[in-house]
Amino acid sequence: MAERTSRREPSERDLRWLRAAIELSRRCPPSPSAYSVGAIVVDASGEEIARGFSRESHPRDHAEEAALAKLPPGDPRLRTATVYSSLEPCSTRASRPTPCAQLLIEAGVPRVVLAWREPELFVDCRGVEVLEAAGVEVVEVPELASLARAVNAHLFDT
Fold first, then answer.
1. pLDDT, position 78
2. Is the pLDDT of residue 3 over 90?
3. What domains can you pick out in the chain, each with its CATH number?
4. d(CA 110, CA 7)
5. Which of 22, 101, 114, 157 fits a disulfide with 130 by CB distance 3.0 to 4.6 angstroms?
6. Rounded-to-integer distance, Cα 70 and Cα 78, Å
7. Contact 129, 158 (CB under 8 A)
8. Any bridge partners for residue 48, and if so which?
9. Upper half-sphere CA count for residue 65 (Cβ side, 13 Å)
10. For 35-47, what is the mean pLDDT?
11. pLDDT of residue 18
């Protein structure tokens, strides 16, 4: 498969928040069938407004979904927010009807920064493509991918 990359450059603030999202992913209860992911929503002024991690309050919770659930529907801060996610937001989902990429689009989030593209272990994820097709700016930070992958090493150890 050809490498899929988004080439926008991250800022120092992006790197700081993305590292925090990766660290948050360490709080996920382990699962043999799902990634451990952290997501942080930051408003336009650089303040955190929500955070979530996979399986935070339910075995089927995804990180972006858990973070968005902590904000009121239609929260106007989302229209200028950035979501930092340790893993590419999902575009296909078996456990719930709406994938995270679509949840972010529906919430009006204009920008997503991620560390690691989802490997084809469970599904063929196209979250970046879905987000970009909807006009969301996506910044990929591949130099932090190994940190996000390390949290999920148990899925690849055989």
1. 98
2. no
3. 15-149 (3.40.140.10)
4. 17
5. 101
6. 12
7. no
8. 42
9. 21
10. 97
11. 98
